[in-house]
Amino acid sequence: MRGSAIDWDRAARRAAVLLPAGPPTDLVGAATVVESLREGSRQAPGHVACVTGLQDAGERAGALPVRIVDRAGWARAATQSFAALLGDHLTGGPGLRGRLSAAVAGDQLGGALALLGPRVLGQFDPYTPGPAGAASGRLLLVAPTILAMHRRLDVDPHEFALWVCLHEQTHAVQFAAAPWLADHLRSLIAAAVAGSDEQGGAVPTSRRPGRPGRPVPSPRAATGATPRLLASMLDDAQQEDVDRAIAVMSLLEGHADVVMDEVGTGAVPSVRVIRRAFEKRRGRQRGLSALIGRLLGVEEKVRQYRDGAAFTRAVVERVGHEGLNAVWEAPEQLPSPAEILAPDRWVERVHG
């Protein structure tokens, strides 16, 4: 019997050991951060709904659970989300060899999470089942990283907490407006990773109906969106699936960036100051951190935010948020990778 190709629990434990705890603070300081995040997470869905016009989705998003966690708690939740997203498609080898391979993969994933963890402020997880009859999903807010970031940027802590919540709750509203979106994204990513060879192995192939599996011909250059380590393991069909998934994620991230800023100074008086400081920090990686970022795809993540935000602004300028909301109606309405970079093509296709 084969288990998963990754020992998810081991990955969470490894990340928890390696992750720095966060900046020092006293009990009063910690309680203040937590209360700011609780209040921000309560306020944010209403603000997002006002900007986007997605009132019903805003109400559903506001009813989802919010978890304020430390970095180890985020890593544990992230591995649970990855397992829900990919676990059925990453089958390990049989016997002791398969278990050892899964343990090594768990250590590797845990190490990657430990490198990325100090950058993560929050995460909306659409793959956690809700109570019977309730929507799936939960919001995670990483208190020590939010504390460290507002200190580093030297911005108002309460306004920064709300600003972070606006971004993450925009994701909650997106998935509430498009109940099919989580499964659609899962199917795209699953199609790209479903080609492990029979030895548990290293040669991905595409096995979808009508697309015979074939080994990767040779290492290839990354596209503008695909991380370099990942690109070298993809064949053409898998690259297509990855590019489509990245187009969706670019939309989600860029849309959230635009919405959080459009809420404006009425809710977050220092929004422009926060945005300038945050963007300056996004572009400041140097040396080893920049190298790691390039290998793991962090710089591509920044590009996702920018491409998706440019798409969102261009579409809103032409057809407003109401016209943009067509993306949440069906998978066919999502922008293609080409349309993310050419918003007018999406507007012409969808709105004529």
UniProtKB/TrEMBL annotation:
Record keyword Iron present: no
Pfam families referenced in this protein's UniProt entry, alphabetically: Zincin_2 (PF10103)
Gene3D superfamilies linked to this entry: Zincin-like metallopeptidase, N-terminal domain
Is Hydrolase set as a keyword in this record? Answer: yes
What the entry lists under InterPro entries is as follows: CHP03883_F420-assoc, Zinicin_2, Zinicin_2_N
Q: Domain of life here?
A: Bacteria
Q: Where is this region: Disordered?
A: 198-225
What SUPFAM superfamilies does the database record attribute to this sequence? Metalloproteases ('zincins'), catalytic domain
Keywords tagged on the record:
Hydrolase
Q: Name one GO molecular function term.
A: hydrolase activity
Classification via PANTHER family: HYDROLASE, PTHR39420
Protein name, as recorded = Putative hydrolase/coenzyme F420 biosynthesis associated uncharacterized protein
Tell me the organism: Serinibacter salmoneus
